[in-house]
Amino acid sequence: MFLKDLFLPKFCLGCGFLGAYICLKCQKKLSYVRRDNCVYCGKPSLYGLTHYGCKRNRGIEGMICVFYYNNFLKKIIKSIKYRLATEVFRELCLIIEPEKLSKISVLKELKKGDFQLQPIPLHTGRLRIRGFNQAKLVADFFNRFLNLSVIDHLKRSKNTRPQAQIKKDKDRLTNIRGAFSTHAHILVGQNIILVDDVITTGSTVKEAARSLKKAGAKSVFVLALARG
């Protein structure tokens, strides 16, 4: 590890400090979600549960996020995604305050029956290029606290443009429509927790939930590292 740090030194993504990707000073720039919101109307909601009037037939039952997607966290996520720096993610996991994660355990109490964690999948072409799925990394991290089964039943059947590159909400919906597929007989009656790294407009998780519900899933919740 010493030789690795010598030849490939770590520099803070926030200030350039030598020795860590997220230095002690810049850790204070990370902003924890103080109140979760309904995924559809964006208004405050206890534990991020979808308001009764906002519910959809093939929609999401609730959404919990840990951080706000501010400029500093954006640098961290982009570094993980596009520079393939999985060590940055491991460092982020180590500095997350444990008490800030206590709310995710509420998910296990919301519905009767076991939940399964389903990371938002990458298309096989993009997975080959990147070598890993960042949503799977996030799911494995959350699972340290949830101790659930991590499944891989949802497939990215359409190689869409990155949602972050699309500005208009309408275009995001069009881009992601029909992007996922799954096997109906596996998911009938199951309670699923969709896991992603960042939620902005929610178009991706809404389309993924629609696919899971169409395949027979009983309920779909969303758990994300950050929200925009």
TrEMBL record:
Domain Phosphoribosyltransferase as annotated: residue spans:
148-225
What InterPro entries does the database record attribute to this sequence?
Answer: ComF/GntX_DNA_util-trans, DZR_2, PRTase-like, PRTase_dom
One Pfam family in the UniProt entry:
DZR_2
Residue span, Double zinc ribbon domain: 5-54
Organism domain of life: Bacteria
| Similarity comment | Belongs to the ComF/GntX family.
Protein name in the entry:
Uncharacterized protein
Lineage, opening ranks: Bacteria, Candidatus Roizmaniibacteriota
